[in-house]
Amino acid sequence: MKNYIKHDPWCIIEDGFYAEYNEITESLTSLGNGRMGQRGNFEEKFTGKTLLGNYVAGVFYPDKTRVGWWKNGYPRYFAKVLNACNWIGIDVQIDGETLDLGLCPVSEYSRVLNMKEGILERTFVASLSDGKQVRVHSQRFCSIVDDEAGAIRYAITLLNFDGKITLTPYLDGDISNKDSNYGEKFWDEIRKETAFGEAYLEMRTKDTPFKTELFNVCTGMKIDLTLNGEPVDFQSKPVKAEKFVACKVEIEAKAGEEVALYKYAVNLASLNHPTDRLLANAKAYVERIADKGFAQMKAEQIEAWAERWDKNDIVIEGDDAAQQGIRFNIFQLEQTYTGEDDRLNIGPKGFTGEKYGGSTYWDTEAYCLPFYLATADQKVARNLLIYRHKHLQKAIENAANLGFKDGAALYPMVTMTGEECHNEWEITFEEIHRNGAIAYAIYDYIRHTGDEGYLAEYGLEVLIGIARFWAQRVNWSSDKQKYVMLGVTGPNEYENNVNNNFYTNYLAVWCLRFTLEGIRSWKSEVSELLQKINFDFEVETAKWQHIIDNMHYPYDAQRQVYLQQDGFLDKELLTVDDITEHRPINQKWSWDRILRSCFIKQADVLQGLYFFEEDFDLDTIRRNFDFYEPMTVHESSLSPCVHVILAAMLGYKEKAYEMYLRTSRLDLDDYNNDTEDGLHITSMAGTWMSVIKGFAGMRIRNGVLSFAPYLPDQWQGYSFRITFKGQIIRVSVKPEAIEVENFSNLPVSFAVNENLVELEANGHRTLIITVKK
Ligand code: BGC
């Protein structure tokens, strides 16, 4: 755990240069706008520890699979989010000496990500040879208004000498992925062009035997220069090299004068533009933003972020660490996915790193969806569901590759295009619970938005594919006289190839029941669909019902807890406190030792109790929580948030708060020693859930929204806004009262501490309700 980021309600502040933590800070200060994003790298050359990262949404490469021993059913490629053209680079020379913070002593350093405004800023004084000192002040953002563009203002002041500043802003397409299976490069140059103060570089992903889409990305830039804030004449010399274009500018400056370079850049992908128009469109785009100018673009950025914060901010009073944590999580989610494009999804690292290939995981449905449901337009969550609907055929092919038939669908654990990309057998073949999360998301979407028709429109087609898979994946055990599910991996990846993972079995049955009810309710509306997919109503539903009625759930009658899997009690039952070595165990222990231990990576049985809380009484949830939580090492970022929600419900306030800090500050404090790889974007939505479903106790019961809020002792108050069935309400929890406000044009009703509250339309009427003790 690290503790060098200053606590502040709105900013991520590195005060003083922590060169050894630079890759961590680069992750923490990442920028994005849904279409493109980048790590908080330096503009100028840096020879110290760094992971240069620029990413364009939806642009990937199918890297050849690499395994020790091939197994039938493995996918041929592992898609990789592509590290793309570096558009932020500015080579800086002062009297011929390169500015490089890896070499020059630096003082008065700060790197600040202002989350309120969406702007990254750096200031420092660097010492060069002969005692020369320069001050640098840079500002940069990925525009959320012009979402294929970014802008930089890079200002240099010579502090104690007159001299020559040479600036070479460039576009560098000669980029390698950190995450690549064979160390190959994935980009070819297509064309480049330079003009006065402008440069363009178009790259295309290399040809591939896998017949996936190839992508062209055209990056363009235009520069401008000022001296002490006034426009200045300058010469721009074009520089061209392989996969590289730049404009070289020289200017003489006196001590105390500020030279500012403005760099306007765009990244246009063939995903969004006709390939033959990329260069022309990039030129027009660059022209437009350069005309707007930095000040105007920045003002628009600040205004647009203010609008976003107005919708989704969670204000926490009296606890800067907690406030910074939640805002950081919300900010990064907003930078990653805007929901405007149903071809895009949310990679576990977003635009902040390459781990996990940038692909789609069950994280989206199980963790991210609730955030977007409650803070964004309905279309955003709907697009996430449509994404999976579009992949249904591939999910059916994926299941067929594994030997399933008759329209059974197994969604991939990891995917870009709907095809499975992951090739560890225990995950690819066994971590099938992901199918259930996709079904659960449909249920969650409908209960939150009230869009019942979605089932008939798209939902049932997906659900039937999933239900057919479960019906074939279980088998009848004549020994147990029950259905069993063998050879699976549950959410707890520290167990593989187990039989009867409680969570998976329970989820499978729930899917079958939900699908069955859906078909019964919408039978006439979906009759064409049922015909199209050869649905044998009598036979298939009878089989499903039999499974629903006869599934085996491992259970310990003595402790009265569900068992994570058959045989779980054979393990030596220790608690995390018994681990004397340094953690995380996944970085210290052999895999063999991990598998034999009882230690749990992330919520597993508890994931099921969280999803299906209404099916269990509080005592059952408490017994299971008390049994499993002490064995849980929370080495998946997805773990703490589920524990906050359950702990809050059980009244375990200390535990809930401890887990809240862990989820909300996971990256800020580098709990799992892996922030340098990138941020844990998908678990950030879990942080949001921790507050809203945890401390504020938000639930949807029988179609009614309800809250049961409490105030953590460490806070003086908190407030948030929720969109529910198109209406917007605000809840403020204070020590002695809960205030609720209606921001919509219609009356709203919801429950607080089991009292029905009705608020008139159009108003900021406030009700005072006593806080639950
Ligand atoms: C977790 C998975 C998760 C993946 C991507 C893994 O460490 O165990 O549940 O889907 O990370 O976030």
Automatic annotation (TrEMBL):
Family per record: Belongs to the glycosyl hydrolase 65 family.
GO BP of this protein: carbohydrate metabolic process
Binding residues annotated for substrate, in chain numbering: W362, D363, K601, Q602
Domain Glycoside hydrolase family 65 C-terminal: from-to ranges: 698-759
Glycoside hydrolase family 65 central catalytic domain boundaries: 327-689
Presence of keyword Acyltransferase: no
UniProt GO MF annotations: carbohydrate binding; glycosyltransferase activity; hydrolase activity, hydrolyzing O-glycosyl compounds
Name of protein: Glycoside hydrolase family 65 protein
Domain Glycoside hydrolase family 65 N-terminal stretches: 14-267
Superkingdom of source: Bacteria
Sorted UniProt keywords: Hydrolase
UniProt keyword Hydrolase present: yes
Naturally occurring in which organism (per UniProt): Runella rosea
Active-site feature positions: E493 (proton donor)
